[in-house]
Design brief:
By secondary structure, this protein is α/β, with parallel strands linked by helices. The chain folds into 4 domains: 121 residues, NAD(P)-binding Rossmann-like Domain (Rossmann fold, 3-Layer(aba) Sandwich); 81 residues, Alpha-Beta Plaits (2-Layer Sandwich), CATH 3.30.70.1450; 119 residues, NAD(P)-binding Rossmann-like Domain (Rossmann fold); 90 residues, Regulator of K+ conductance, C-terminal domain (Alpha-Beta Plaits, 2-Layer Sandwich). It contains 15 helices and 22 strands. A 6-stranded parallel β-sheet has the order 3-2-1-4-5-6, sandwiched between helices. Strands 14-13-12-15-16-17 form a 6-stranded parallel β-sheet, with helices on both faces. A 5-stranded antiparallel β-sheet has the order 7-8-11-9-10. Strand 4, helix 4 and strand 5 form a beta-alpha-beta unit. It is globular, with a radius of gyration of 23 Å. One of its GO terms (molecular function) is potassium ion transmembrane transporter activity. Keywords: Ion transport, NAD, Potassium, Potassium transport, Transport. This is Trk system potassium uptake protein TrkA.
Length: 449
């Protein structure tokens, strides 16, 4: 029986979520107040669409909520999401996931909490983007960074420059010639297409390679790839919006942080609350202003205004002036692959971060395995324990006999982290981190469960 999902709000988050889930066996209904958004969905995907207010009881009563497995309230308006969640809860929806922008609801002293509305899980897109950006700041020269096993294992994305010592060499050769830098190349993005690389894959210029290693070895992996990390001291954030403020509040005690905000009232208002951050009221695209602030001495520039055209232009401008690390935030997810190639160091989207978070929740529930989905990479990360009676153990297979569509990135054995090589053995009760495409998750289960 298909899992029934209702998605209220099909903006960037809702649309990309439907696009990901519609590839699987889910019975999906979307609700949006704008007819053109519903048409966009139904013209490209096999889902049911209802035009109307997702917070309206009359609209929700068109569905038998007692049969709904997941109700996702994903509009841009917190109040609509809360009302829709409460109505669906009272009507019998089984699990409710809600998108909220206002982080006050998560405070310990909050008078109104998501639990009072029957909400099982809250997604805060801006907080998700803040977390992703902070990871990149703390691991410079990377285009992406994901953490596993409570931060003990990292997957770091590195763009392979033409000067990289890896260019022209294959994966197997690089692993053998760097025995003291244990790593696994789990994923390659080449010409906007991602794939799990076979061992004979040759590194090429402009590849983005995703390397898995122990957290303590990531700096050495970056150096091996020709992109050594550097120390960040001075940070400039363009835009005092939600993401900019969250970043400044979190970073101001460890770095010299400046926020550039063009709106005078906004700059004045938040200058009083961010006491350890210098807020400058100026146009971040003004070259004279950037020169007066010695932009070339900035270690990290984060373009986080609510106008992505401004973000893109500002990022290119400061990169030209020699800023070491430029992080660009975008909201239109269709731009994601294109802007990766324009010369900035890293691209982050609060919408993609939110989609990945929701996909992880739903897929982990359905697979009975912890599954982290990375929609921007078109890949999943699965964490599972090897069962004694599994096919791998019964058939006495070796790590070389594992299908190339699966990458065993790390093994946790008796609390020890192991980055596997060709001679590594896998035992019952080992905890594996497997990187693969969504369609191959069943192969992982058959092999190790």
């Amino acid at each position: 029986m298909d899992i029934k999902i209702v998605i209220i709000g099909v903006g960037e988050v809702g649309f990309n979520l439907v696009k990901a889930l519609s590839k699987e066996k889910f019975d999906i209904t979307v609700i949006d107040i704008k007819e053109e958004k519903c048409q966009r969905i139904t013209n490209t995907m096999d889902v049911r669409a209802i035009v109307g207010d997702g917070a309206s009881q009359r609209i929700l009563q068109q569905l038998d909520m007692t049969n709904i497995d997941y109700l996702l309230a994903l509009t841009r308006i917190d109040e609509v999401n809360l009302v829709a969640a409460k109505s669906a809860y009272e009507m019998g929806a089984k699990k409710i996931i809600c998108r909220l922008r206002n982080t006050e609801y998560s405070h310990e002293s909050a008078i109104i909490t998501p639990e009072q509305f029957g909400i099982d899980y809250v997604v805060y897109p801006e907080k998700a983007a803040q977390r992703d950006i902070e990871n990149l700041i703390r691991q410079t020269s990377a285009v992406d960074l994901e953490e596993f096993k409570n931060g003990q294992i990292n997957m770091v994305g590195i763009k392979i420059a033409h000067s990289s010592p890896l260019v022209g060499r294959n994966i197997k050769n690089v692993e053998l010639s760097n025995p003291y830098i244990p790593h696994k190349l789990a994923l390659v993005i080449r010409e906007n297409e991602s794939f799990i690389p076979p061992k004979e894959t040759i590194y090429k210029k402009d590849d983005i390679g995703y390397f898995i290693g122990k957290a303590k070895d990531i700096n050495e992996i970056q150096r091996m790839a020709g992109k050594p990390a550097f120390k960040v001291k001075n940070i400039m954030i363009l835009g005092a919006g939600k993401i900019g403020r969250l970043l400044a509040k979190s970073l101001q005690s460890d770095y010299n942080v400046r926020i550039v905000e063009q709106n005078f009232e906004k700059a004045k208002k938040f200058g009083k609350t961010l006491t350890d951050t210098l807020i400058l009221q100026a146009n971040g695209l003004d070259i004279d202003f950037l020169n007066s602030e010695n932009i070339q001495e900035t270690d990290c520039f984060i373009a986080a205004t609510e106008n992505e055209q401004t973000n893109i232009l500002a990022s290119l401008l400061v990169k030209h002036y020699g800023v070491k690390q430029v992080i660009l935030h975008i909201t239109t997810t269709n731009y994601f692959k294109a802007v990766r190639r324009i010369g900035v160091d890293a691209v982050v989207s609060k919408n993609i971060s939110a989609v990945n978070e929701v996909l992880k929740l739903i897929r982990s529930d359905q697979q009975d395995l912890p599954v982290s989905s990375f929609e921007d990479l078109n890949v999943d990360a699965i964490e599972l324990s090897v069962v004694q009676e599994c096919r791998y153990i019964r058939k006495k297979l070796t790590i070389d006999q594992i299908p190339e569509e699966l990458c065993i990135g790390a093994i946790c054995r008796n609390n020890e982290m192991i980055i596997p090589n060709n001679h590594t053995e896998i035992y019952a009760e080992d905890e594996l981190l497997v990187i693969t495409k969504e369609e191959n998750i069943s192969i992982v289960e058959k092999l190790f469960q």
